[in-house]
Specification:
Length: 238
């Protein structure tokens, strides 16, 4: 049975990047603070947690230490910077001792992570290769249609008929046919609403403060059986 659920949605923290995302560690701290202050039930990070597969073990340890700050389930979808291939950062031995509340998608064909106590399921494809062949939001399957259905997808949204040939494309039709209550997107640093019909779909944007913002932001998703799904932008501590 569905229960009321609050989710913090973020992406593209790019830990280990000293240049374009130099404030990434502080931003991740702020995200974990937001999970606590909003009394959220889940944190989802939709791709590019790490900037590349060569990041130091110190960056990985920092990430795991931050996840250990909360008992809330933290769900990770690998993106084009932290691919789930043979040399993936997520396959380092250090991840064998990950916090018990950390869940990482690993199947490139898609898989479901289910939490029966909340009546919610998360679905996502772990990206092995960032290429035009990879379609992040196709062949979605959920085991229980009575649960909240949340899809995570890391890729490039593109309107129908553009035919750019870019990698990891997500189309409006993919969102319309997802059958989800919410589609959580990652890959773009800026917040963007790409909702289709009655299905809310958002790029949360990276949590690092961008040039026109006063503070970093995350998306806060409220799932309520009586009123449905609502989305708000939540400012992080700066």
């Amino acid at each position: 049975m569905k229960k009321p659920v609050n989710i913090v949605h973020t992406s593209d923290t790019h830990l280990g990047d000293p240049y374009g995302h130099s404030a990434s560690e502080e931003s991740l701290k702020n995200v974990l603070d937001a999970v606590d202050s909003t009394k959220s039930n889940f944190l989802i990070i939709v791709g590019d947690v790490f900037d590349n597969e060569r990041v130091s073990n110190d960056s990985v340890c920092f990430f795991l230490d931050q996840i250990s700050r909360t008992n809330v389930p933290v769900i990770i979808l690998p993106g084009n910077h932290d691919l789930m291939h043979s040399n993936s950062v997520y396959k380092r031995p250090i991840f064998k001792n990950s916090p018990q509340n950390l869940y990482i998608f690993q199947n490139p064909n898609g898989e479901e992570i289910q939490f029966k106590n909340f009546g919610i399921s998360f679905w996502g494809k772990a990206m092995e290769e960032h290429s035009p062949k990879f379609k992040p939001l196709t062949n979605i399957s959920f085991g229980n249609n009575e649960f909240w259905k949340i899809a995570l997808a890391h890729g490039q949204f593109e309107e129908e008929g553009v035919n750019s040939g870019r990698s990891s494309l997500i189309s409006p039709q993919n969102i319309k046919e997802s059958g989800c209550d919410y589609v959580a997107l990652g890959h773009w640093d800026s917040f963007t609403d790409v909702s289709q019909d009655n299905i809310p779909a958002y790029y949360s944007g990276c949590p690092t403060k961008l040039s026109k913002q006063k503070t970093g932001m995350v998306s806060l998703i409220n799932l309520d059986p009586s009123i449905g799904v609502s989305h708000t932008r939540y400012p992080l501590n700066s």
